[in-house]
Amino acid sequence: MIERSAITIEPGHAPAAVDLGAIDLGAAMHALCAELYPTCRSITGAGVRETLAILGRHVPLEVCEVPSGEPAFDWRVPREWRIRDAFVKDASGERVVDFRESNLHVLNYSAPFQGRLAWRDLKPHLFASAEYPDWVPYRTSYYQENWGFCLSQRRLDELESRSCDDTEYEVSIDASLADGSLTYGEVYLPGESRREVLFSCHVCHPSLANDNLSGIAVATFLAQHLATAPRRYSYRFLFIPATIGALVWLSRHENELHRIEHGLVLTLLGDPGRSTYKKSRRGDAAIDRAVVHVLKHSGQDYEVLDFEPYGYDERQFCSPGFDLPVGCLMRTPHGRYPQYHTSADNLDFIRPEFLADSWAKCAAVVELLEHDRTYVNQSPKGEPQLGRRGLHRALGGELDRAGTEKALLWVLNQSDGKHSLLDIAERANLPFASIRRAAELLLAHDLLKEGSVS
Question: Which domains does the chain have, with CATH numbers?
Fold first, then answer.
């Protein structure tokens, strides 16, 4: 069973069209990250609902609740985690580890615990990172019941120095694991066709800015942009907890998955690293080619990774039972930067300019998908005379500095009803925008007609 509802939005906060060209897009996305940053999120619970309520002010979000225990293939929706407070107090009553100071201080999904423990018994429940002694690590225990606290190595060493085995501490994790539901959000934007482009991001991490907030921000503003744009495709945006959220969504939409023609998981999009694309399981899907083409012609350094069944939810969408054309767009991949899954993944680590750059690349991919069509040359026997149509350089011997004539000739030569504009752009090694502009000029002069939909 799944319960659906439009999210409750306070009066005056209904999603409204925003002229993204009139705002500092990077600053606006960073501000959304800042608003979401303090919330304690997990794979279930109030934090996800609070997050979706904020996103509902920006986009037409539908919220879905799936009860605990509901099956999702080999998985079941877990019990809902609710946390109110947590601390470790020393003999003087001072909170030496405090959930109120940072929601990373609690092992995410900790079982409730109340009691007094000797240091020897408390220490196995304390998690730190010796490699980065001033940072608090992010640790979880979603599917194996446990409790614990995360703290900096420096704080752990300090406690160690003033504790003996029998030193007692008061420990409290005011939390519960009980039947409830898993919550996720969905934005569906219908287009001329029911064929879909899927974007997915994660909403399950607490105060981590690059992972997950950067992906949430880019997805939200991309959905906002597409909501007011002409659309050939239909677009679906998923705001889901990692792994279990994707599995739940897939299990309830199996009959509709054939409509997904392109898809991207968006994550880690605000750091200063180069853009990185992880291909779909297919490796040569149209989305793989489209993203690589955009990155290649961005004028910036980039990296392309082959698919592997490890990472984010692309591995669920690309599991062999679905094999959907879904890749993953990010900047620095997980595990390659020291701030990953630590308190150093904060609002200073992500920058407006990198959020804006990631958004622009997503928008360029959408633009390519929307305008990738197949055409048929209407004057295929030799080159048509471009000069008398005003499409040729006025003087022989001039350089085609803008590459316009080259693009025109490539489009004419390859438009045989078999090659799409992306095919032509790749073969010509020209930006898709140049090939698209050439096709528009040729269409305007009746030298092309549209063939089958690519």
Answer: 3-77+181-370 (3.40.630.10), 80-178 (3.50.30.90), 373-450 (1.10.10.10)
